[in-house]
């Protein structure tokens, strides 16, 4: 007997991939594969309902990504991909153990213990396969009320915080000049 773990991400994938919209898309684009799950958040409070995830499916042949919203399920028009050379790695869903809610809990625990004076105004969360860590990684960027951004990378298998960096938003514009 094989035990499989179902996270909120797996449930979203099931909902999207069994929809009529995805089945029609997949019939025309059978070589596309899942490369990311994305959401914006306004709060890391576990009492706040999770926002719906968006799922990105990449096709090497046209180097385009098609994003599906999950509530309601619908496809956006294909978009160009922001990436370095080569193709994008598919998500290793069998390895995924830390779902969206888990990642937000870990991010909030880290923020509140390491940066308690910085409240969250908005956040961006993306689950991607990471070549550096060779595992699925939650990349979470939080915009804070102190004009800072906190970026964390969380291993989606173990839940370990792989990196965290607090940066002043004002220093970002100075670096780009």
Task: Kindly describe this structure.
24% of the residues lie in helices and 36% in strands. By secondary structure, the chain is α+β, with helices and mostly antiparallel strands. Strands 1, 2, 3, 4, 5, 6, 7, 8 and 9 form a nine-stranded antiparallel sheet that branches. It starts with 7 loop residues before the first helix and ends with a helix. The longest helix has 15 residues, at 100-114.
| Percent range for β-strand residues | 35-45%
Average pLDDT level: 91
Order of helices and strands: HHEEEEEHEEEEH
Largest sheet: 9 strands, antiparallel
The total count of helices amounts to 4
> Distance between termini?
58 Å
Helix content: 10-25%
What's the β-strand tally? 9
Spatial shape? globular
Low-confidence stretches: none
Radius of gyration: 17 Å
In terms of structural class, how would the helical and strand content be classed? alpha+beta
Short description:
The protein has 177 residues and is of the alpha+beta class. The chain is built from four helices and nine strands, in the order ααβββββαββββα. The longest helix is centred in the middle third of the chain and has 15 residues, at 100-114.
Task: Give short descriptive properties of this protein.
globular; alpha+beta; 177 residues; 4 helices; nine-stranded antiparallel sheet
């Amino acid at each position: 007997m094989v035990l499989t773990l179902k996270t909120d991400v797996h449930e979203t994938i099931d909902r999207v991939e069994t929809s009529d919209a995805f089945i029609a898309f997949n019939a025309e684009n059978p070589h596309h594969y899942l490369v990311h799950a994305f959401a914006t958040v306004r709060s890391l409070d576990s009492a706040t309902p999770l926002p719906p995830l968006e799922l990105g499916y990449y096709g090497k042949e046209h180097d385009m990504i098609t994003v599906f919203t999950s509530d309601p399920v619908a496809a956006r028009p294909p978009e160009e991909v922001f990436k370095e050379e080569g193709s994008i790695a598919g998500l290793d869903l069998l390895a995924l153990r830390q779902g969206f809610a888990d990642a937000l809990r870990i991010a909030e625990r880290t923020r509140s213990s390491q940066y308690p004076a910085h409240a969250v105004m908005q956040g961006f969360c993306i689950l991607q396969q990471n070549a550096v860590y060779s595992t699925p990684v939650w990349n979470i960027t939080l915009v804070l009320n102190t004009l800072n951004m906190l970026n964390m990378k969380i291993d989606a298998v173990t839940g370990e915080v792989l990196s965290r960096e607090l940066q002043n938003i004002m220093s970002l514009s100075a670096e780009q000049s």
